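batch job 7 of whatever, protein = RabGAP/TBC
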Amino acid sequence: MLSAQSLLHPPQNKQQARASSSTDQSSIPSRSTRERSGSEATLITIYSMYGEERRSSWAPTKDVSQVLISQDSLHPHPSPSPDSGGTPISTTGQLTDADTHERPPRAQLPNDSRPLSAPEPRDSTSLEYAITSSLSLPTQSASVPASPTTPRPVLFLDKPTPPTPSPSTPISNEQPLLTEDPDSSFIRNTYAQLDVCGVKGDGYEEGIERTRARLNATMEQLRASMFATKELTNKEIDVLRTVDRYGFFSTPSSDRLLLLPTSKPLSLYTPTASTVPPTPSPLPRVPPVSVSPKESSRISKWDRMLEAPAPNRDLWTLKASKEDKLRERIYKGVPDRWRRAVWAMLISRKAGNRAPPPDKYQELIDKPSDYDIQIDLDVPRTISGHVMFRTRYGLGQRSLFHVLHSFSLKCEDCGYCQGMGPIAATLLFYMEPERTYTSLCQLHDGFNMHTIFQPGFPGLLESIYVQEKVTQRMMPGVYAAFQKHMISTTSYATKWYITLFANSVPFQTQLRLWDAFFLEGRDVLVVMAVAIVWAFKDHLLSKTASFESILSLLSSFFVPEDEDALFRWISKAMEDKKLKADMVRWRSEWTELVSQGKDAGVLL
C-alpha cells in the first residue's frame, strides 16, 4: 500500500525507490469496470453483523504507522471551569498546519503531568478536534505541579496556515498486493491520505463519499479545498449553537419514545386485575440534557478520590482510603470531566494485566483486515447525529475506522460485528484512538465480551438465559405472557447486550450505565434489562396485549422518568446477595447445558 509518508517524502535512495516502485504501476479499476463487493448489501439479521465471509489471509503491506498523525493529539481539551458542567467546544471548522504534516512519534513528545483524562491542548480550534472536548475533564490535583511545557490554551479565533504543497498524487492510485482485495486496499489508502490532509468542513458538513464512489483526488486538490478560507463562517457558528452538552445535533431517532417510569424495588410480583392499555403513551421528544446541581461538588470529591503517579499520569488509581466510597459514588454518577480517568481505572482494575502492548495499535493500522469493506460501510451510520461523526472521513470517522480495523485483527473468532461500532464510538468521545483500542481489548478479555462478539453469540444467549430466569422468578405472570404470545427475548434484547444499551436509552443514561458496568461487569446489563421489563409489567400483562404490542413496547427508546431513581433501583438489585448468587449459578447452568448439547429450546 502506498503510505502517506511516501506522498510527502519521496524515496531518498535506490533501495527505497525499488521498495515503492511495485505500488505505482497501475491504477485500481474504476467502479464502472468492475462490480463492488457483495458485502455492501444491507445486513438484516444478527448474524450478518459479521459482514462477508472471510477470504484467504492477506500479506501485510508497508508500514504506515510511522506517518499517521500522532493519535494522542486528537483530543484537545481546553480546561473548563470546575463548576461549568458544560461542553467546551471551539468554533472553527479548519485544520491547523500541524494536522497536515508528519508529527513526531509519541516517545519524542515531552512528558508532562497532565492527567490521562486531559490530553495535550493543540493550537487548533477545528471542530474536528475540539468537539471531543464536549466531555469535560478533571482538573489537576493540587499536589502535582503543572508542566512547564504546557502549550498555551486554545484561542477561539485561531486559524491555520496553509501547508506546504505536496506532490499531486491521486488517492489510492496504486496496485494492491496480489492476495488483497482491491476495494480494501483503496479504502485503507483513502483513510491514510485523509489522515494527512484532513477534511473540509469537519463537524458541520456532510462531506463527500469517496470509498464507495471510488472517487480519486490529488493531494493538491484536497489541500486546496481544505484551506479555501480562513474566516469563521456563519455555518460553523450555527453548529455550536445547536449541539447539546455531549455534542449531539439532535435526539436519537426511534419509532417510539417511552417514559421509563420510576418503580418499586424488585420483588415477587403478583398481578392484579387492571385496565392498563397494552402500550403507554409515547413521548413527543427526548427531554433536553440536564446537568446535576451537584456536579461541581462531585467533581471536587472525585478529585480527592483519585491519584495518578508522576510524571506522566498514564493511569489514575483510587486512593486506598476511598475504596469504601467507590461504589456509592459510581451509582450517583461520575462527573463528566472525570469520566475518562474513572473508566480507564475501572476497566484496568477488572481486566488486570490484559492490556495489549503500547505499540500494538499502530502496528495493526497498516495490516489488511477481512472486514475493512464492512467497517467502511458501517462507520458513517454509527452515531451519525454527533458532531464528531457527522462529516464523512472527518477525524471522528477516521479514528473510528482505524480502531475497528485494528480491533478486527485482535481475535480471529470475533473479527468484526456491527455492535462494536457504537461501543468504540462512545469510548472515542472520551479517549484517544490508542486508548480506545486498549479499552476494547480489555473489555474483550477481562469482561468476557469475547463471548458476546463471538460467532453464535454464546455470551449473549447466556445473558438472555439469566434474564429469563430472573423474569420467571420475580414476574411469573410476565414470563407466562411471553410464552403465550411467543415473544422471544432475543427479538428485543439482542441490541441491548450487543451495544451495551447504546441507542436504546438517552446518551446521559447510557454513560451512567457504563459507569456501573465497568465497576460490576455484565450482570449490570441483565439487571437493566430486567428493570425495563419490570417497569412495564402491567402493560405486558394487559388483557389486550398482543405479540405486536409487546414487541413494539420492548423495542422502544426508553427515557427514564427519574434517572437517579433508576440507578438506585439497579444498585439495590445488585446488592441482593441471593440474586447475585443465583445469577452466578444460572450462568454456570447455561454453560453446562451448552456443553451437553441440551440448550436447544431452553430459551423463549
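notes: The beta strands are 257-260, 306-307, 317-318, 557-560.
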